[in-house]
Amino acid sequence: MLEINSIRKSYAKTTALDNVSLKVNQGETVVIMGPSGCGKSTLIRCINRLTEPDSGEILVHGQNILELSDSELMEFRRRVGFVFQQFHLIGRLTVLENVMFHLVLAGADRSWAEKRAAEALEKVGLSGVHSRKPEELSGGQQQRVAIARALAAGPELMLWDEPTASLDPILVWEVLEVMEELVRTSSTTMIIVTHEVSFALRVADRIVLMDHGRIVEEGHPTSVFADPISEIGIKYKKLLAS
Amino acid sequence: MFSFFRDGFYKDFVVLLILTILLGTVFSAGIAWALDAYFGDTLNEMIGEYGQYDIILHIQEDAKEAAFRELERIQEQQFPGARLSETISLAGQANFFFGLPEEFRTKETMTNLASYFAAVPGLTGHTIISDPSLLIRNVHGSVADVLAEKIEQIPGVRFTFPDVGNIIVLLEEPSLSRTVEAQVNQLIDEYQLVELRFPMGFEVDTQQVGAQAIQVLKETLPGRKYSNVTAAQYGEDLNAFLKTLVEMRDFLMSYASKVRITADPEAHLIIGEQIAIQADGAAPLKEGGLLTDENVVIEITAVSGGTAEGMIIRGEIAPSMESLKQTGYRVFSDGQIARPIGEVEVENERYRLAYAIDESLRLLEELEVLSVQAADAVDNADAVLNTFQEALLQLEVLQVQMRQLNEGIAGGGSASSEQLLMSLLINGLFQSLAQAAMQAGENSLDSLENLDVAAMRASLEQISSQIANVQSIDVQAIIRQIQYVRDTLPMLGDEEIGRSIRLINTYIAGQVIPGERIQILVEEGSVDEGQVEKLLREHLDNPYLNIYSTSVGVINPDARSEIIRLLTEVRAIIAGLLAVVFTSAIMILDHSTLFSTLKYLKRAGKEKVSRWKRLLDPVYILGGILGAVILGAVYSLSGAQIPYMSLSSITLIGLIIGILVACFAERFSPVNAKEVMAGQALGLSNVQIMREIVIPSSRPGLMNFLNRWKQQF
User: Fold this and answer.
1) How does pLDDT run across B103-128, given as a tens digit for each residue?
2) CB B58 within 8 A of CB B93
3) Which of these, A48, A58, A69, lies nearest to A20 by C-alpha position?
4) Which residues of B touch A85 (CB under 8 A)?
5) Distance from CA of A50 to the nearest CA of B (A)
6) Does domain B51-130 have CATH number 3.30.70.600?
7) Does the N-terminal peptide bond of residue B199 adopt cis geometry, omega within 30 degrees of 0?
8) In chain A, which residue's Cα lies nearest the Cα of B3?
9) What does the domain layout of chain B look like in residue ranges?
């Protein structure tokens, strides 16, 4: 479904991505892990062109998305759900509006969009907060709203950019629970950037380890963590053992 | 970056721009117009509507009721149908408008208009406000008539009339004002008034020197017509005041003690420096010591060779008829006494004057007594003279009798025996006595008779007459007046006089005190002021001569037109300032949102650029263009006009405002990057991001307001 070939991205004197290539199959859940600043978020943002890579190609169903026109890019993005680390909800809109507004703006009927939004909210366990403003919710709830927003359009690809990183540790579980449920019940292709090793072990079809802008190791979770070949993999193994 | 405008947002932007310009124009012009209308109405209330009135009469506030009654009488009796109303009072002066009916607006009436109101109680002045008119101020008397005559030939001029040194040109139509003004200016420019000013105290024969100057000008700058039109204009208050000050200073200088300094050869005295002398009863001065309050300080006012003159500016000298001679010491500014400079001689003129007056009073009193005593003496002399004359007559009779007796004794013959006996008895004795007596008596009488009693009496009468003349003089009156003069002499000490003189000098030093002046009218061409000054200084041999060239009159619009013009200017300035304020506000409230969004989008994923490259940032360029377009358009459309600012200057200001707003856009209207990024990730177009995410969260402004119609959430 997704094929990333030799993409590079640099910021001033820092190389964020260095000749990264990755293939993701339809319905596969790929978890990307690695130390902070290793290029995980840059990689995931390049996939929907929130960040423009300097070179390389990103093929989705064989089409290089780096060559899409503005309107084609918009169309592509509507098929990709993105969950940000810091929720990125629209502060002036209610929870329901946050989940439905992009559907309406994409041309959907308002009542249909409202129904879809309600379903998505129910799926993440937030049925009773439709009319609240994001600021009235806890961090975990806000992230669940963000997940519902991403899910509402029925994306074929979900990109998760460290969805629990900004949460209070005691709220992390509620988001992970939702995510795990989604992975379990949905056939959507998912690429998840996270530091949650145990979560990765539970949900990942494949784990990709990155370090210094490169993919240093990838494979099934058990093989990566049980018999790591990269320095980062070894560290994760030790972490699991501890 | 500018692809941002592609997907429909450019339409929103163009609409916003057009509405911004229209709103800015309405805002700037509207407020300026409202202010203008307000001031215009206020003005109408103050000075009446255009053409309604002809004269404002300024009346003392306390006399305004009486004045109003008199004005009503004038209105009723002399100008039936005239308009009369009271307007605001200012600074203790009430003001009344008086408007003549059209049939009275003739040259004759207008020329004498002020005289109709001369008897109005409390009248302090007037201002002619007839409309439409032009006012030519300060018209020189020498050309006033000719100029008025020529102006009346100009089409559109109804007539002219004089008003306190000015000429008022009454027009047929207000619209002709500019064309008539241009032609009047041309007429005025045909004349030039060259004024020769001599320094104060410089007495000149204005006719003679004027003729001399004209001759010089004719010879050196021919081709023009020159005439001496000197007019005495010393009645001005300032001139009179300054002259009085100078007179007062001269009086004080002559009244002050005279100080003469005979300087030592090595002492170089300078005007203005201070010399100290020992005061009466004070300790002797010492070189190197410090000046004390007891010392007398003299300021040098004139230096000539080895001598100098000065005046006492501190301390007093003892009153004396004698000159005070002391050694003078130079004094430094810090009060330290320096070396002696020579002998200082001080004469107390005030004391001498007071002494002379006292002595005069004594003399007069003595004179009065003396005249009485002299009159008595003359009377006594006259009585003595009378007695003397009688005695002399008796002596003459006795002499005759004695002669007869002598002759009787000498003859005998026919005498009786008693007579004979008597003759015998006294023949021997008396003959010798009688002869002796007769001889002596004759001699004395001869000499007494030779005295000119008549002449003596005439002399006495003359003396008596002169004494009577002296007595007829009212000596008491003279005494009273001299006492009055003595009593009214200023009770000023030298120090006070010195300070007063210095104060007067300080005041008049910066003033140009008009001395004599000569005015030369130049026709059929003009002359250069500098050239004439150089020429006349040389030919009249006076390096202090100054030349001023002036016009023979200055056109001023009438008071109302001037105020209306000012109001129009104020309106244009206000509109201009409001345009700048509006542009700044709209750029900050609306466009800064756009700039900050563009900057965010441009920054995303891009490398940092150098400071110099940032100056060429397209966002800054866009900001500058927007600022220039908005301000330039609003400024032009609102009819704004700020003095000394052309449209290009204003456009430049707009450019600067735009660039500054673009530079600091994130501070004015920070964009919520997370929300924008969410919009991008959700597949929203740029226009949707702007309408649904950026603009609704931005500061309230026109863009925000307009967006509400298109905003779905």
Assistant:
1) 888 888 888 877 788 777 888 888 88
2) yes
3) A58
4) none
5) 7
6) yes
7) no
8) A70
9) 2-37+563-707, 51-130, 206-234+514-557, 258-347, 354-477
